[in-house]
Automatic annotation (TrEMBL):
UniProt-annotated catalytic positions: 89, 184
PROSITE patterns, A to Z: ARGE_DAPE_CPG2_1, ARGE_DAPE_CPG2_2
GO BP term, pick one: peptide metabolic process
Organism of this sequence: Megasphaera vaginalis (ex Srinivasan et al. 2021)
Peptidase M20 dimerisation domain boundaries: 217-312
Residues the entry annotates as binding Zn(2+) 2: 150, 185, 391
Keyword check for Cytoplasm: no
Catalytic activity: Release of the N-terminal residue from a tripeptide
Binding locations of Zn(2+) 1: 87, 150, 208
Pfam family, one: Peptidase_M20
Cofactor note: Binds 2 Zn(2+) ions per subunit.
Protein name: Peptidase T
Gene3D superfamilies: 3.30.70.360, Zn peptidases
Enzyme class: hydrolase
Amino acid sequence: MNSIENRLRNRFWKYVQIPSQSKFNGGSKVPSTASQWDMVKTLRDECASLGVVDLEISPYGVLTGKLPANVPDGSAAVIPAVGFCAHVDTVDVDLSPLVRPKLTETYDGKDIVLNQDAHIVMKVEEHPELLPYVGQDIITSDGTSVLGADNKAAIANIMTALETLSADRTIYHGDIYVAFVPDEECGLFGSKNMDYEKFPVDFAYTIDSCEVGEVVYETFNAGSAEVTIYGVSAHPMSAKGVLVNPTLLACDFVNMFDRRETPECTEGKEGYIWCQQIESNQSKAVVHLNIRDHHKDKYEEKKERILRHVETLRSREPRATVECVISDTYGNIADAVTDENHKAIDYIYAAMKELHITPKTIAMRGGTDGSFISTKGILTPNYFTGALNFHSKYEFLPVQSLKKSYDMTMKLIELIYQGA
């Protein structure tokens, strides 16, 4: 393993062992967990030692800073300022918040025993995605947690790049801004609470995709709807003509939607309305819906459809009170692309060409921090971490793939400087 791979592995190993699992709370408190502060403060101290200036942790746990330009002739003003963003939280999928990483050196193509005591084995038969990495060094968890490469592989990548740039003054670059944000996994609440005056970049990148070569600059338009139904409660012995059952009305409402337009029945750029949850009792029911579509017009139509169904429910049962709140969560990165900022995407493909990496362009059925950042006028496409099986106890990271992600970051910085 070469020195860069060692540095990347050691940083990643350290970061995943700092617990920083987020908890969904609707954004009522950001960060949602105290442990994320530990991660942010660790990164602040490390950034300061690497020459990053203007470091600030906001009241929302967002860390921002700048590595000043290094140019031979004082021409930094003409070099685009570029940003790199990563999220510090790991996802809560009802596994342990504590990550105990394991290294399998020179993977032999066989099953990997993650946890002998708990009989947790990653079987090749069930996970053939392991096979392309025979002969490589692979990092996993011990099977009791996710690994946290989503998104600590990106953090290790960015921090190692900063370390390289601060140590080698022969590598020229413009101003490089960093943003480390909390609570991406539960609603992009970190990027939504960023002070963008602290991130004055021409364009930015997130590093939040999976296998080598993945590129994302199309994501869902995303929103949510909360429909609250107030019924009329009554004792069953005298309920006839009086009781208005909000639970049954919630079921009637959900059944107005097309069952073929759900996550389990769609793929690619097909959108959906997803009934995630129904909470109900004798007096009130609350229906939680997620709205997703790559196409802005179809996304807006889905919101209008929900409102029409709400009106239908009201007309069917005028004794009930039905309320609806619809909120936008994030936008499609592609909607922010212009002729002027398209070069941010062009640089990705140019870097991959020079690094002999085959691009795998994906219209992501989800979103990244860049999905929201792009709505603020900062185009923020996304590229790979090198890890696989995000949000799973079978998540794994080939160290050599992490190195390729780091190579992408360094090549982008080089190309941006050369293209100024």
